[in-house]
Structures are given as C-alpha cells and as structure tokens.
Please model this.
Amino acid sequence: MHKQQINVLIAEDDELQQELLEGYLAPLENVRIAAKVSSGDELIAEATLRADLDAMIIDLNLGTGRGGLESYSILKLRGVHLPTILVTGMAPHASVTYDLGIVDIVEKPYTARRLRQAIDKLRSHIAYQAFMQAGGLYVPIISDEIIQKTPADILYIESINRTILVHTRHEALESKIPIKVYESYLQDSCFYLTHRSFLVNMKQISRIEGSDIFFDQVHGEKKALIAEDKTHEIVSYWYNLQKWL
Model:
C-alpha cells in the first residue's frame, strides 16, 4: 500500500530519547525527519519558518523555558496548524489536549509498535484534512494498486506514448486512466489541458516561460508544455487565477 511522505519535526531535549525516536521512525515507510529541536523557542522558530513540515512529535517537557504544550499553543495562535503527537512521561488531562487538537499522546516508556500506531493515526488525520480541503474529492490512480490523491497533491498529468503519468512533488505514478477522463473529472478543480499531452493543475504552477510551465518541487523542477495556439489563453487564465489564490 502506497503511503504519502510525511516530513516530521521532532522536539525533544533528551538526546537518548531523541535517538530512540529516530531509531523507531527509521524503518517506517515515507516518514522523514525534516528537523530536530531541543527547546520551546527553537520549536516555535523552526515550525514558523519552514514550509516543508507536515507534522510534529513534541515532548511535553523541553528543558528550561517553554514546554512542548505551551510552544504548540503559541504556534496555533500564530496560524501554524501542524498535526502533532505529544510524547510525555505523564499524560495531561484529556480535555487539555483535546481542545488543543493533539492527534495522539504517547506515554514513556513506549515501544516501536506504540509509536507506529501513533504515526498511522497521524497519517489518517493528515489524509482526512487533505480530503476536506479538496472539497471531498479524491483522484484515483490505477496501476498495480489503487492510489488516491487529492487534486492539490498533483502538479500535472502527462501522456507519453499511451502511458499516463501522474506527477506529484515527490514522484511520477503510472495510471491506466486516460488523460481525457482525468480532464473531465478535474474540470472543476482548476486543471487545464494545456497541450494534448499535459493536463496541468493551474494552482501549482510556479512560473510560465514561453511554452514551458514550471512547478516547484522538493528536488529541482518539473516541466509541462503549452500548445502554441493556447499560449495566450493559458497565460491569461493563470494570471487571473493568481488574483484569487
């Protein structure tokens, strides 16, 4: 079963506990430790400035200064809403974490199995959030298995010699669904057939240069094409769309 990558920030002031977390997370599919901090101030700074984070694992106590819950609350006041697992030696009262929106509480000492359960819960929470933000729409990708993405996950869909590739920021997934079917299905989600071989998510374009459409991604850039007779139409539509985003 394909699992989407989760970029996690770890906030833990105890080096041994941090190493334990890293060791338990290492075997988990598509879980990447994107940042590590050891204090509340570092947590607030890192989570505020970084745009590549999907979730956080926070220790309740972070040495001197602000604790994990206090730092998490400050982040929410600043508009940073990252799904979070709270790690603690003594579980707070349920009403406290429920009001804050903590996804799960993992009590020390914990096992690899218990942390894996928390990560699975985190995945489900992230998937549900994405589903709701997409207006309750999933895009099916059918090959050897069935994968579901939200429209926002997809940069563009490409047809190469009858092979359909669905491009995301991290990968290109082969699908048996024709590009024309995708075009009809995604017509209300700002997807545009810019070329007979490219169905583009106009919301994900970073820039247009001539007949080339570029998308930001984790490593380098991806590119789609505009048919010569559609250049003015596509560029005008994209510029107008930016006003509403």
Remarks:
- The two ends are 33 Å apart (CA to CA).
- The first helix runs from residue 15 to 25.
